[in-house]
């Protein structure tokens, strides 16, 4: 569990997505040009509504304040920062921490949602032990 080197910075396409393999799982990485600089976002490539690995081929943009990718299949929007589907709030895709270091793109091997759940469980256990 930790950071994995997945591709070169030159493999990224501005305002678009690419697909990489992370421990056998497809992950879509988006390099987005924002007013305050470049932002990297990474989500699972699997579209749970369309049932296919296609999100890296979707159109990146925004809906209100949310930075999203529109699935190329049924056009539903997934928030690139939270993984939530805007049209179906109960459905989400995994979100991965991503960083750029010395010209290489690195992904954390555990989706952020799982890391948050693990942290919450540890906190709950610690609170129960202290009580």
Blueprint (SSEs and pairs):
Elements: E1 3-8, E2 16-22, E3 25-34, E4 37-44, E5 46-47, E6 52-53, E7 59-63, E8 66-70, E9 77-79, E10 95-96, E11 98-101, E12 104-108, H1 112-130
Antiparallel strand pairs: 1-12, 2-3, 3-4, 4-10, 5-6, 7-8, 8-9, 11-12
Number of strands: 12
CATH topology: Rieske Iron-sulfur Protein
Residue fraction in strands: over 45%
Question: Which architecture name does CATH use?
Answer: 3-layer Sandwich
Number of helices: 1
Number of domains: 1
* Main sheet characteristics: 4 strands, antiparallel
| Weakly predicted, low-confidence segments | 121-126
| Overall pLDDT metric | 89
Order of helices and strands: EEEEEEEEEEEEH
Tell me the name of the CATH homologous superfamily.
Rieske [2Fe-2S] iron-sulphur domain
CATH structural class: Mainly Beta
End-to-end distance, in Å? 31 Å
Strand line-up in the sheet with most strands: 2-3-4-10
DSSP helix fraction: 10-25%
Account of the 3D structure:
This protein is mainly beta and 131 residues long. It has one domain (3-130): Rieske [2Fe-2S] iron-sulphur domain (Rieske Iron-sulfur Protein, 3-layer Sandwich). It has one helix and twelve strands; from the N terminus they run ββββββββββββα. It is globular and about 35 Å long. It starts with a strand and ends with a helix. Mean pLDDT is 89; it is low at 121-126.
Keywords for this entry:
mainly beta, single chain, four-stranded antiparallel sheet, three-stranded antiparallel sheet, globular, Rieske Iron-sulfur Protein
């Amino acid at each position: 569990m930790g950071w994995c080197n997945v591709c070169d910075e030159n493999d990224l396409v501005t305002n678009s997505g690419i697909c990489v393999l992370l421990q056998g799982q497809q992950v879509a990485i988006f390099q987005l040009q924002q007013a305050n600089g470049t932002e990297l976002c990474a989500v699972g490539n699997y579209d749970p509504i369309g049932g296919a690995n296609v999100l890296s081929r979707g159109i990146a943009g925004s809906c209100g304040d949310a930075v999203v990718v529109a699935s190329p299949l049924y056009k539903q929007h997934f928030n690139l920062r939270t993984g939530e589907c805007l049209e179906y709030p109960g459905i989400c895709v995994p979100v991965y921490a991503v960083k750029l270091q010395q010209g290489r793109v690195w992904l954390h091997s555990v989706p952020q949602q799982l890391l948050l759940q693990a942290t919450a469980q540890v906190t709950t256990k610690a609170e129960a032990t202290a009580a």
